[in-house]
TrEMBL record:
<dbReference type="GO" id="GO:0005739">
    <property type="term" value="C:mitochondrion"/>
</dbReference>
<feature type="region of interest" description="Disordered">
    <location>
        <begin position="147"/>
        <end position="183"/>
    </location>
</feature>
<protein>
    <recommendedName>
        <fullName>Sequence orphan</fullName>
    </recommendedName>
</protein>
<feature type="compositionally biased region" description="Low complexity">
    <location>
        <begin position="147"/>
        <end position="165"/>
    </location>
</feature>
<dbReference type="InterPro" id="IPR038781">
    <property type="entry name" value="C365.16-ike"/>
</dbReference>
């Protein structure tokens, strides 16, 4: 017993709490910077996909018009509800991953910049991402989706808005997007489809790359780091070909209600098939900045700043 007590007291468990406040500040700064660099593009693409599904507006026209509006009214864009939701979504996801790393390095007495891939981080980031994303999709559908009377006036609205709305991007309330002052309820099945879509994307972003990276041929990438980077960029992007139909169906169930009033193969599938390719590539253009560029900026900036702290 004496030997055991001596052994336990001779090697007490220590936590690496040195400069913990500054380290958490680095986590916030890295996540906020990565979000600021990527979220303007993501916000515009998200709106373009929703308006394509709801009103048939060309994605290119919407993207062009929104970027012009952003250049003319930067304050209006960056203070708008759509940008705030997207920024909260991705900055919150990056910050959750950073905080998990900092907490784990503290508890395990590891260097400041240590990264810990694992179940805890995956579950935490998935929970935060899905929770905010589903709410964001509900708000975006109400802001930029079809109005309650769109089934009778969609053709006229499409022709009059082919140039895509400009100032309405900065609308703060759904009523400005629904001229009749009515707001539809997002069906529960749409929430389910959005959650399934996000689960697939997150799985492709955090789990699949490390599994397939070793099998990438040397003709495409020679070093292990290059193979990892290639897998990190390509997996979430290619997975959009699988998740986009879920996204489009969820939007269509909201845009054309009641949810059970239209048949899938006769009414909804033609709309999904019409928008599939353009929306898939548009979502790829959104995912690559979010999980490729944004992820790299967040990790590299955090690593550099943690190094300056001396840990």
């Amino acid at each position: 017993m004496t030997a055991l007590s001596e052994r336990s007291t001779s090697s007490p468990r220590t936590w690496n709490t040195d400069r913990l406040g500054a380290r958490l500040g680095v986590d916030v700064a890295s996540a906020a910077t990565a979000g600021l660099l990527t979220c303007p593009v993501i916000t515009v693409i998200d709106r373009a996909i929703i308006e394509k599904a709801a009103k048939g507006l060309p994605i290119r026209n919407t993207i062009t018009s929104c970027f012009k509006s952003m250049a003319r009214h930067p304050a209006g864009f960056f203070l708008s509800t759509p940008f705030f939701l997207i920024y909260t979504l991705y900055t919150g996801t990056y910050l959750t991953a950073n905080t998990i790393d900092t907490i784990t390095s503290t508890l395990r007495n590891k260097p400041f910049s240590t990264v810990f891939p694992g179940t805890a981080k995956f579950l935490a980031t998935t929970s935060v991402n899905m929770g905010i994303c589903v709410y964001k999709d509900e708000v975006f559908a109400k802001l930029f989706g079809a109005s309650p009377s769109s089934s009778t006036s969609q053709s006229s609205s499409s022709s009059s808005s082919t140039s895509t709305p400009k100032e309405s991007f900065f609308s703060q309330s759904p009523s400005t997007c629904h001229p009749h002052g009515q707001t539809k309820t997002v069906p529960k099945i749409s929430y389910t489809l959005f959650c399934l879509r996000d689960s697939i994307t997150i799985f492709a972003s955090f789990n699949i790359p490390s599994l397939i990276a070793p099998y990438i041929p040397d003709t495409l990438a020679t070093s292990p780091s290059t193979k990892t980077a290639l897998a990190q960029f390509s997996c979430p992007a290619l997975m959009q070909f699988v998740s986009t139909p879920m996204h489009l169906l969820g939007l269509d169930l909201y845009n054309r209600q009641p949810a059970g009033g239209l048949s899938f193969w006769g009414d909804r599938w033609p709309r999904i098939r019409r928008d599939y390719l353009s929306s898939s590539f548009a979502r790829m253009g959104k995912i690559v900045p979010a999980y490729g560029v944004g992820g790299v900026v967040n990790v590299r900036m955090r690593e550099g700043l943690m190094g300056l702290l001396g840990g």
